[in-house]
Predict the 3D structure of the following.
Amino acid sequence: MNKLKIGIISFVSTLVVGSGVCAAAVLGHKNEPAGLSDRALTGQPAVVSENTAAVVSSEEITEEAVETGAQEEKEPLYASAAEEQSGTAGNLSAQITGSAGENEGTETASAETSTTAATTPASGTSTVNTVAAAPAAHAESGTPVANHGELSVKGTQLVDKNGAAYQIHGVSTHGIGWFPEYVNKASFQTLRDEWGVNCIRLAMYTGEGGYCSGGSQDQLKTLVTNGVSYATDLGMYVIIDWHILSDNDPNQHKTEAIAFFREMSAKYANYDNVLYEICNEPNGGTSWSTIKSYAEAVIPVIKENNKDAIIIVGTPTWSQDVDQAAADPIKGYSNIMYTIHFYAATHKDSLRQKMRSAISAGIPIFCTEFGTCDASGNGGNDFAEAEKWIATMDASGVSYCIWNLSNKNESSALISSSCSKISGWSMSDLSAEGQWYVNILGNGVTPGTVVTPEQSGNNGNGGNNNGNNGGNNNAPAAADAVTASSDNTQVTVTNSGTWNSGNANCYQFTVTIKNTGNAPVSNWKISAEFGTSITLDQSWSGTYSVSGKTIEITPVDYNKTINAGGSIELGFIVSASGNVETPKVTIR
């Protein structure tokens, strides 16, 4: 009897956040602090209500078992997956692994001639490299990898085996441990043949109950391996993404990263299609010098196995501060690129200008993740702004991958939350963002369109909410910040955004806890007392409970202890019918 690999669903109890009326306008970057939706809230959300959600693991069972519903609980891929399963738990169908075999496909490429200033790795001297024009956008016979082979970096431009400029037009998965059903060959083939996608980014979370925080490392590596195999069979490029987020500083898990990339780069040393993204979005005040030191520890491990590997390095502030990397680039290695991420309804021309300046300074940029909505991963789509981004990236030869391949009930999911298909989607099966991207890759923005910088009133690092959430940005602002201290611990609560959503006023607060003493501080507890009744709408990087007008916040596992002189950042969003002032705060 034939055996089929299918997804097994086991159910776990978890806690979920409140009403969600303010989800449209988080001002940071995808619900990390500010904003963590990427998106997951931490898996440690507010204590508001209990729910159940699916965690998917992989198991071989017979066709008979599929028909009878027989199943066996396995170790969950991610330790806390409940929030990410929103929109999928009831839709999971059998996950069948595809068979091997290469298929003819289509792809698009942008017309591009690039003359750029490049920094020579060994000497740091500036040179000018002229890259041959990429072919005009059209359907090609054969697969992307068959046609273009192993990619490399020349100056600031990604080029193919013939030295011609080449652009990645990719799709990023959501966290593969939360949405493993989309890591299948039929899904990737639909993206390649019907959308014009030439690359898959495999997002493997390290925090949020992921690879370094309780998830099944073996099963997550199996998903990565399967994803690389499917992409390779289809002649597509594939990015292995070490998806740091709530873990802020990649050095937190440097030892695990080195071991992981040593294993992956050895496995794929002779593959022409595998790229490595070594730290998705450093944040929480992590400096470029800190990221650079991490990269300089991980890069040699990969290069030892494949000296020509393309390695993509994240930049500060959720991969927005590419200017800092441009001022102090990594030297001594070829084929190093630097990450920029944007969400079009939040990040506008000031961040585009930062990208243009970094390219002019000589570093190659790769946009490994972007969305058309706001930085929460949700809210209203700003397609006009997104098309300005596409035009700017095309004009500079910047490759990009859109977030995210899932049917999660949020704006940045490419598949409609009502669609349970895991491949073969029609346009009506797609979200508004998904439909937009298909059109962009099919024709959409003319490649190489020159974009005139505009004054957007946004600072590119979260900036000011401009009302793209569909509501009015007229909620009264709370006081800027309040600070409290206890023993050797100081907490500061800052209002980091206000907006209106329907009949509710929404307020986002960033909480910074600093250890001012000479010894570690553990098991901290914060009370935030408001002057009016509030609803806790979203929260991240802590365990939250609400009693009347007070929110109590306690740690999650990864930030339970704050080292001497160290600090952590967390945050939350509340809504109210009236005005909300910055709360009175205490820490103990």
Remarks:
- The mean pLDDT is 74.
- The longest strand covers residues 3-16.
